Amino acid sequence: MTRKAISRKLPNSQPPSLPAISHGPAEENTPAPSVHSGASDERPASQSSTLKGSDGDSVNFVPKRVLKREIEDLSLRPKRSRARAPPRAGEAAQKIKTLWSPEEEPPKFKGDPSRTFEPRNLKIDQTEVLIKQPETRPISQEQLVAEVKGIYAGLVMVESKCIEVDNAQSSTTESSPKMNNEQWQALIALHRMLLHEHHDFFLASQHPSASPALRRLASKYAMPARMWRHGIHSFLELLRHRLPASLEHMLNFIYLAYSMMALLYETVPTFEDTWIECLGDLGRYRMAIEDDDLNDREVWTSVSRHWYSKASDKAPTTGRLYHHLAILARPNALQQLFYYSKSLCVPIPFLSARESIMTLFEPHLNGSPTRLQEIDAAFVRAHGILFSGRNPEQLAPSVDEFIGSLDNHIGRTTRRWMESGYYIGIALGCSLLEYGSESNVLMREIKSGARTDDTDTTMQGVEAAAPSQRFLDALDFTCRTHDVVFRRFGDPSVTPYLHVTLSFLHHLLKLPAAMAHIESKIPWKLISLMLNTLVGVCSDFDKVESDEFSRNEKDSPRPLPDDFAQRGLLWVEKYDQTKVEEDSKNKGYYPDDWFTAAKIDDEERYFEVASMMEERQDRCLWLGNRIAATGMWLTYDKNLRQFRVAQRYDVEIANLPTDSDTGSDTATPSSEWGREDGADVEMPDA
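The structure assignment produced for this chain is given below.
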């Protein structure tokens, strides 16, 4: 019978309860009920009594003394109180008398004499047990070669099948019926198998015990490129052309390919550059198909930009990477123009950018409304006309609109124009190169590396090819911009623009034929006045007057944001990229370790800090000294620490600031720096 049934049979329907256990003496005659349902009682009959119920069930009662004895057997004796009786007066006095004092002998230890205090045996008490390294079986070269051959044979079979299926589906994209879920899953499984085969091949061929010949197999047979082309890219293009029906399958495959590339990036560092660019491409695919969640789109844009920036660090002269960064720069039109132009003006240009850049120019050339500021729209439109040659009648109005608004725009944006300054300066430099055109007069000189041994040779008598009208328009646009910016004396917002301009001129110092096309238009006098304003705040003249690159030798290199922006461009790289040795004539603007030794996170590269202002000013002064060392355009007096211009460039400039504005006396020419007959300037002996 259950406990509930027994309870119903008890009086008042109340279940029996055990008596409270107290620390006082128990009454022997008080019964303690114990309920049982049909089970036999194992206690002796003398210690329990049974009460019969109306239905024949028994209710056993245990005497209280038996219960007390059972509790004692379970060691549940009552605890002793923690309170102690107060000591007697005599005992307290006796204890006080026996206290030890410093004058007495130290008390003897009354503990167990068998206990000792010897140091523990560390050999016996080992709390950590070392686990042996798993045994590995060495593999011979013959076994490794056989393994690689076997993997490659299976890889070729799967690769052929992928090529066949992708080509068949791509050729019938318009006419073929929609593929069902099972067919998409089969295609994904096929390409996943190819990726796994490539992974096995790379692990085996790049094994630590592999011979050099075995390691070269991946490069010899272009395995990274084949993996991307046949295993990932062709299938992604097939999925892209089947959107939106294939959206879910495309997402799954992008995640699959991204995880595989991330694994190869960690395990096969030999082709790290390829894996980085592939990760950037996959991030760009993921960004492009995200239309619903703007946050996800921005996240994948940042992921792709991170990988492309990392790839451009390893290959700064490759224009393809800057083209990809230009696509990710939307909707920042000024930054897009900077990256597109840079992709065409590096030693390894990306010629396909000539088609992609038109997606930026088309809305401005067609007169379509844009969300850009008027000054930025005018600047982009002017470059679109210079690049494409379309709508030439709109060039002058666009340039006038930009030049007319530039000074007020810089004054309103202040420090925010620093980033725009080097974007604009680099874009103007690329326009002078006609965006990497092989027929450009400057490009031909830069590519050929024509230089003269005598750096003091004047520019007269140098034969130069006739410049195109497009180059002349770009030169006028550039110099008019110089004329506005270089009048803002003492404005730190324009120093990045000044730095980019001086680095461009510094590169042309040993290219007389190239300099001959632009020297007469450059506002040298404004540049000298701008440099003199920087002289007043210079704290280390030894550094800026030295022949070596201006840098702090004590600390690790800290490139400026405009340094990262210029890196890889034709006017900061070596003249001859094929020459390994470096001499005074084949020397780039930056030292070889300027970027590689820098310890800067990707997110902090274009972050302007207060300490950079002094570094940039010193760099501009150093470039000014290098240009002044020739004595043909600028001059520098180390005693007075003042820049001046050569006599033939000391022209009157309208609305020129006074001497108090510039902190120099260069506004009035001095007879000791040149003659009024137009002869060449004679530099005083140092």
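Interim note for the steering committee: The longest strand covers residues 58-63. The two ends are 120 Å apart (CA to CA).
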